[in-house]
Amino acid sequence: MYDTLLTAMIVVGALIIIAVMMQPSKQQDALSALSGGGGGDLFATQKARGFVAVMQRITAVLAAIWFILGLALVYLSSH
């Protein structure tokens, strides 16, 4: 059981890395917020839509699964 959970955790970890790498870069947004003309946009909130929203949700779900698997592995290793 421990080996199965450990393998699942490694696979989910790799999927998290892939999901994070597939997300669009927000570097330009950060640069414009810190430059002189983008100060008003610093606190503007925009809801993620389309591909960005899907990737954020996938990343969050994978992170939750990875965390739960980690807790299960800690429990199994202590008993």
Strand proportion, as a percent range, falls in under 5%
Helix content: over 70%
Shape: elongated
Query: Gap between N and C termini, in Å?
Result: 12 Å
Low-confidence stretches: none
Number of DSSP strand runs: 0
Give the quaternary arrangement of the chains: single chain
> Would you list the SSEs in sequence order as H and E?
HHH
Discrete helix count = 3
Computed Rg = 18 Å
Give the rounded overall mean pLDDT: 84
Q: Main beta sheet: strand number and arrangement?
A: none
What is the SS-derived class? mainly alpha
GO cellular component, one term: plasma membrane
InterPro entries: SecG
Subcellular location: Cell membrane
Keywords: Cell membrane, Membrane, Protein transport, Translocation, Transmembrane, Transmembrane helix, Transport
Describe the structure.
The mean pLDDT is about 85. The protein is built from 3 helices and no strands. The chain has helices at about 1-20, 25-35, 50-79. The protein is elongated. The relative contact order is 0.18. It has about 80 residues and is mostly helical.
